[in-house]
Amino acid sequence: MTEHRLDPAPDTVTDVFSPARKPVLTVDAGDTVVVRSLDASGCLERQEKPGDKPPTMINPSRGHCLTGPIEVRGAEPGTVLAVRLKALTPGDWGWTLAGKDNALTRRLGLGDGPPTWLLWELDNEAGTGTNDRGHTVGLAPFLGVIGLPPAEPGEHSTIPPRPVGGGNIDCRELVAGSTLYLPVTVPGALLCVGDGHAAQGDGEVSGTAIECPMTTEMTLDVVTDVPVEGIHAETPAGRITFGFNEDLNEATADALDAMVTWMQALYELDRATALALASPSVHLRVTQVANGVWGVHALLPTGAIR
Predict the structure, then answer these.
(1) C-beta of residue 193 within 8 angstroms of C-beta of residue 67
(2) Has this prediction a pTM greater than 0.85?
(3) What is the pLDDT of residues 152-199, one digit of tens each?
(4) Is the peptide bond before 69 cis (omega within 30 degrees of 0)?
(5) Taking the domain 3-223, which CATH number applies?
């Protein structure tokens, strides 16, 4: 198998998903790609002080600055792209923004105030990030956006996650050692990645994580035999299924529906028994509240059922 490298450049980045966009790299199934992505805003330099506006690669940007698309030979609608994340290495800086005007910040009494920035120094060797106020957190890097374009013609926003194709999933469990399964939407898959997060809690409650550049090593496979339809993952934390919907109840039901189906296959159970077994073992978590479409994931932790 071949290893490829893909760096961000004006002709290798995009701020939309589009089935018509030509691939910037073509690989065989089973190949490994080392991809560098800029931060979500496409900044070419770090902020030196809160609120700085450093130069960006895409200006003005309509969405996340993503690297790609990557074409995978043999990926066709009806197959599934397995994105095996082998290593994720943040850059040495990052930022977090809170207080942008939206329904949640207004509910918290922050909609009328100026936004607040935290600037972070990231130490990969120590596994920590320290901000300009002196607070230190542990790093658990992942990509906020791993996605395929919708099959429908036109340019599609990178901001909302989609039940088919994924995109801005923002799931903190998709760390190195994870495999994300994306049903293929268009010939060649046309995978785009970016929106590096050095650390994030469930929910991404301010609307941003520690946003940072990222170097990702990933192997891309095409598979046909998967236990559940839709987007799902195997991670160091356990098996994960997802729900995405503007209605939180529907997103929750979709995530649980897929997990119950997966448990039926794993343990050879009828559906009601699988649901009963899920109740003491499966965690439902709000993946993110930041993208206009609610994300919920169901997690069956590794070793929870023996």
Answers:
(1) yes
(2) yes
(3) 999 999 999 999 999 999 999 999 999 999 999 999 999 999 999 999
(4) yes
(5) 2.60.120.580
